[in-house]
Structure prediction request, 185 residues.
Amino acid sequence: MDIQHLVDRLEDLIDDGRHFFGTKYTIVDEERALEIIDQMRISIPEEIENAARTIQKKDRVLAEANEEAARIVQQARQHSEDLIDDQEMVKQAKVRAEYVIEQAKIEASKITREADEYVLVQLSQLEQQFAHTLDEVRNGIQIMQREEQAVAEVELETAEVQNHEVNHEPINFERPAQAPVGSSL
Prediction:
């Protein structure tokens, strides 16, 4: 599964959560959040495998370029051996072979540079996706921790109010009320 899709699902989960009125806190379904995070952990190796395939593709292109260069060099050598009898033709063949070798090296260098740039772009994008995903996960964890703390504080306040109400003595209506000391009736 695409890591970006999972990030979008996590964001949707947070958006769909129950918001506390007057606060920035949101309650999210922990089980669904953890399920998405688990899927992210599974998806990340897939992204890494994609990057490895890109590197393998680059290596294959380089190997093909080197093989082509070797083939061209071999052809040039063979051609120069065929023309060895004629001195002028031999000189031209050597010059041509060197030119072809140089062109093959330039082409191989160009392919290598382009492949390296492509891999760098892919890895940079992957790094940005990982950083964004990590930020989203950290934010989600922080929100959930703050919500748990807020709920705990509300529960503590409720318990304190209930304890305060329980500790008052009941009013005894059968006994006459006493006037406060120092007051005159």
Notes: The chain has a mean pLDDT of 82.
